[in-house]
Please model this.
Amino acid sequence: MFYLFALLAGMALALQAPINAALARDMGGVRVFAAFFSFFVGTLCLLILARVLHQLQGETLKLLAHQEWWKYIGGILGAFVVFTTIISAPKIGLAPMIVFLLVGQLCMGLFLDSLGAFGLAQKTIGLSKMVGLGVVIVGIFIFFYPDLFQKGIK
Model:
């Protein structure tokens, strides 16, 4: 089930970027406000969901004051991603933007898994993972420079 959610989230990210970019474009190029509004609507949805699931309680809110500072930067990183997709998708195209997002996620994911960072299970970076990442990188070159590979085939 978690794999399905991850797949759906990837599809949602692909949809979110052009939708937010269209919002920014149709509002006169106000990219930061478009990113803000996207987060505002998402925040409202999460607030309603937290309330419906009875996860919005006084005790939960009190725990926020006792967290380490770095646990608050997830929202900043999310805002950076949304803003970046708004400015990148119209300039470089949706598919190339997603490819670079994916490679960035894979590289950081491997690194964080190898450290067991943030309470994740520590996983070694073995040969199969490095080969897999290499295959993705070769795939990117084929994706962006198909002429180089087609000339070699002929």
Summary: The mean pLDDT is 89. The radius of gyration is 19 Å. DSSP finds seven helices and no strands in the chain.
